[in-house]
Amino acid sequence: MKKLLLSSLLALLGAASLCAARSDPRADYVTRVESCEAILREFMAKPETAIPAAVLAQAHAIVITNQVKVGFIVGVKDGYGVIMVKQANGRWSLPVLIGAGEVSFGFQIGSNTAETILVITDDATPRMIFNRRFNVGVDAKAVAGPNNAKAETVNRELLATPVIVYGKARGLYAGATVKSGWIERNDEANYTLYSTQYTMPELLYSNWVTPAPEVVPLMDFVKQIAP
């Protein structure tokens, strides 16, 4: 009986190891890109969240993030995103995976998911992510952007701001008193997604890597809304 139990346990362990070996981290990264595409499409589908054409016309880069926040006294928001830049030839780059997060202090209850789009209006700001964690609103000035329903409020001062932020939150979350959102490069994820050893700068500012089929729909949509 003991031998039978031992044999069964070994078989189960072997099966578990085989499943782990067959796990596909690339599929997880593809899902991240697809979810960022879905976020952007959902934003643009509704007047109350859509980004005005005048803002998108100034875009030198677009960042889309998806984050989850939980906490009671100290809140931690963790997630992922993609960044795309408009290259010197006017073409949009590959979507490059990034990390995204936030820490906030103060009384806060519950959890939520947060979806955010950053429209970056200069060439220098995206390059800040190359060497360090980029803190939104600290390393570059950031303001909340008007939606499509309030497009008449778009002005020269707004368009000169390095980062224009569009966001929405779902779920209960209240009372954070200090917060600092950040994004950072994630070369390991991009090595897997694109089967390459090129890093973030090369992926964004060169055409050395052929777009994976799964990222083409997002690229096409960005070209459509921000030609």
Structural notes for this entry:
- This protein has 227 residues and is an alpha+beta fold.
- It has one domain.
- Helix content is 34%, strand content 29%.
- It is built from eight helices and eight strands.
- It has an eight-stranded mixed beta sheet.
- A hairpin with a 2-residue loop joins strand 1 and strand 2.
- Helix 2 packs across helix 6.
- The longest helix is centred in the N-terminal third of the chain and has 21 residues.
- The radius of gyration is 20 Å and the shape is globular.
Name its key features:
alpha+beta, 227 residues, disordered N terminus, 8 helices
Q: How many domains is the backbone divided into?
A: 1
Main sheet: which strands, in order across? 5-8-3-2-1-4-7-6
Oligomer: single chain
Helicity range of the residues?
25-40%
Tell me the strand percentage band: 25-35%
Task: Profile the largest sheet.
Answer: 8 strands, mixed
- End-to-end span in angstroms? 70 Å
Helix-strand makeup class: alpha+beta
Mean pLDDT: 80
- Could you tell me the number of beta strands? 8
Coarse morphology: globular
Radius of gyration: 20 Å
Uncertain runs with pLDDT below 50, 5 residues or more? 1-22, 103-108, 170-179
Compressed to H and E, one letter per element, the order equals: HHHEEEEHEEHEEHHH
Number of helices: 8
List the topology elements.
Blueprint: H1 2-22, H2 25-45, H3 53-56, E1 61-71, E2 74-85, E3 96-105, E4 111-120, H4 124-127, E5 134-135, E6 142-144, H5 156-159, E7 163-171, E8 178-185, H6 187-194, H7 200-205, H8 216-225
Parallel strand pairs: 6-7
Antiparallel strand pairs: 1-2, 1-4, 2-3, 3-8, 4-7, 5-8
